[in-house]
Amino acid sequence: MALKQKGAYCSNCQKQVLAQGTKPNHILHLLLTIVTGGLWAPVWLLITFMSAGNYRCTQCGSRV
Question: Could you list the residue ranges that cross the membrane (predicted)?
Fold first, then answer.
């Protein structure tokens, strides 16, 4: 999974910090979906929705 970054306010650190999250490798999941005849598509959707908005503070590790 690749990293995504954004600035966000951390309530634990009580300041503006750099937050990191992961995003799925869509090319890999597309290939798996094609190879499995579409059976991988629900897994791909689940992984995509679970990783959406999943950012963590780079200083303390809490969710932002």
Answer: 27-47
